Amino acid sequence: MGVEHATPGMIIIMIILAMPLFYFIRRAREGKTFFVRRIAGVDAIDQAIGRAAEMGRSVSFSTGLTSVSPTLYAVLGVLFHVTKKCALYRNKLLLPQNSPEVMAIAESVMKDGYRVQGRINEFDPASVVFLSEEQFAYASGYMGMIHREKVASAFLFGYFAAESLILAEAGQQVGALQVAASVSPEQVPFFISACDYTLIGEELFAASAYLTKEPVQMGSLRAQDRAKIVIFLIVMLGVALSTAKVIWPEINWLDINQLIRTPWENLGGGAV
Amino acid sequence: MNFRKRLIAVVTFLGGLYFFLDFILPQKLPEYLGGYEFSRYNQQISSGFIAIGSVAFALGLINLLYIHGTKIVFKRQGALNSAALLLSLITMIVFTVNEWMAFEGVNSHAGKLRNLSEFARQIKNDAESKRLTEKTPLERVAILVEATDDALADTEKALNTSPVLVPVIIRDEIINRTTKATEPLNILRTISDDSEKSKILEPLEVMAGELIALAGERQKLEELAYKKSVSKALYGFVYEGLFVPLGSAMFALLGFYIISAGYRAFRVKSAESALMMIAAVVVMLGQIPFYSYIHESLPELRLWLLEVPSAAAFRAIKFGAAIAGLYMAIRMWCSIESTSFSDDGKGEI
Q: What is the bridge-based pairing of β-strands A177-182 and A197-200?
């Protein structure tokens, strides 16, 4: 259920969740190294680009229906890496776009990738293609592009909806090595069925840290793990209290749900 | 950090701070803290976002024109497709603007009558309360009479020249309301002396009521004409007749793709894929109407699979993604984002 204004309980949880971020980023900047488990899908990114270079065919990178959001910034980290590699191996990189705002940002990132490799003159603005803002028009445009270019590798990173399988099947039909990552769990089964590698949920956010080993991202990744432990403990506490409430109903147990949802006005004194 | 990046960081932080405070603080601060309402500027800020979004939309249009325009000009491969795309784009823009203008016309004629009704009522109220206005009540009545004459003549003309067959009920109602509005209008026309000022009140009240009723009938007349207009038909043809079915056709492809993807996914290659295959079969069999021929418990088992293990996995994914999204948002807000997708000031970003 969406809320328009945070309750004091929510603010406390937000502070508890935000604190590890700053702490671990500081630790990472001080030189502390953190272990990141192997993510097969991220390892496959370089493999996919190498494959395209060997075959002399294009690489495509779709951000799907991602709007300007935290997800997009996670995707841009991967796009930057893919662009650098493509620039290095002189692969043609196609960037079909659904949103004009995202297109402008993604084009800048792509240009920067070429610049970092010292190959800005090889950047082709025509490879960033605005297809359509409409979901299925975008999907049909993407399919056409994949079939015409016969891409060797396709990356599907970001937010996807019902068009996910259409995009993934297009790559499958031309025999592309596909790596997908989506934050929408509903689309994950489609990607698992049709793609070679799939990053699930937060692995999309971890991908950039995994690729760059950059302190801010590594610290953030470690903080995410700690925050998940906090969430896990809250869930376990909730389960235990709910169970206890059923077994011993006569005892007045702490109601976590109510504690979190109590609005400002119930605390007294606040005009709301 | 160069000046441009610093400026972006400051603006980002202040923008984020506004929405953060808007979210965490009560809708209205207590009086002893100034009683400030954070959300009072939300409408203006949203309008600003819409304006920026409109500018970004032009980027998409420019990109399309650049990519497909160069293909056509230099006769590159696929130039014919590009020409078809640009032609479709221009056709769609022309038809949509045309339809939009026709739709605007529907409200504008009726709106004129509503405004006149409001004006009549305002003159009456001002005259009753003896409120001082720039023009005298009789001068205002003269303006009203002139404008109403034009509006009634326009409505009569619209009725007689309507491109569609107007239903008798609407035609009679318009004639009836026009006649009824003309009666007080004629009375108002005869009043020219300030001593008769009090006589304008009743005709103004009657006229205001008749004009508002006439506005409703005029709206119906215009809507009728709009629904049968060439603009609407052309727009309907390209949008509802072509664009929407093409989208549906793409969506329909999903059915076939699910079969081919399902075939690949459910091939038993390992213990995990066997488990997935079994779960999928149970879910599918539990969904069909004649499950009872196989096993009575199939629907319950299906429901359990969906609501317990599957929902748990979904929630775990959502929790993880939400926390990662939150951290990414904080990093962007505080501009502690790394060099992961830029060359840190060496370039244009």
A: parallel
Three-class DSSP category at B298 = helix
Rounded to two decimals, the ipTM of the complex is 0.86
Residue that has been written with the tokens 């000022």 in this structure: B197
Cα(B245)–Cα(B199) distance, rounded to whole angstroms?
62
Say whether B192 sits in a helix, a strand or coil: coil
Look up residue A118 and give its two tokens. 């010292």
d(CA A249, nearest CA chain B) in Å: 25
B78 interaction partners in chain A (CB closer than 8 Å)? 148
CB burial of A173-185 (b: ≥16 within 10 Å; e: otherwise) equals: ebebbbbbbbbbb
Q: How far apart are CA A176 and CA A150, in angstroms?
A: 8
Strand partners, B28: B37
**Coil, strand, or helix at residue A46?**
helix
DSSP A7: -
Query: Which residue in A123, A124, A72, A132 sits closest to A96, CA to CA?
Result: A132
Tokens 């990472």 belong to residue: A28
Task: Calculate ∠ Cα B258-B311-A10, nearest 5°.
Answer: 130
Contacts of A163 in chain B (CB under 8 A): 250
CA atoms within 13 A on the CB side of B303: 5
B74 to chain A, any CB pair closer than 8 A? The answer is: no
pLDDT for position B97: 94
Task: Give the C-alpha separation, A198 to A212, whole Å.
Answer: 19
**φ and ψ at residue B39, rounded to 5 degrees:** -75, 0
Report how far residue B248's alpha carbon sits from residue B26's, in angstroms, rounded to the nearest whole number.
45
Residues 6+ apart with CB under 8 A from B57: A100
Asked if the C-beta of A269 comes within 8 angstroms of chain B's C-beta atoms, the answer is yes
Residue that the structure tokens 């959001």 belong to? A69
pLDDT in tens, A94-127: 999 999 889 989 999 999 999 999 999 999 988 9
| Torsion from C-alpha of A258, A264, A266, A270, nearest 10 degrees | 170
Q: Which residues of B touch A201 (CB under 8 A)?
A: 316-318, 320-321, 324
Q: Which helix (H) or strand (E) holds B337?
A: none
Measure the CA–CA gap between A73 and A82, rounded to whole angstroms: 14
**pLDDT tens string for chain B (349 positions)?**
678 888 988 998 998 898 888 888 877 777 777 777 777 888 888 888 888 888 888 888 888 899 899 999 999 888 998 999 999 999 999 999 999 998 888 888 889 999 999 999 999 888 888 887 788 888 888 899 999 999 999 998 988 888 888 888 889 999 999 999 899 888 888 887 777 777 888 889 999 999 999 999 999 988 888 888 899 999 999 999 999 999 899 889 888 888 888 888 778 888 888 888 899 899 999 998 888 888 888 999 999 999 999 999 999 999 999 999 999 899 889 888 756 666 654 444 3
The pTM (predicted TM-score) of the whole model is 0.79
Task: State the pairing for strand pair A128-130/A177-182.
Answer: unpaired
Per DSSP, B218 falls in state H
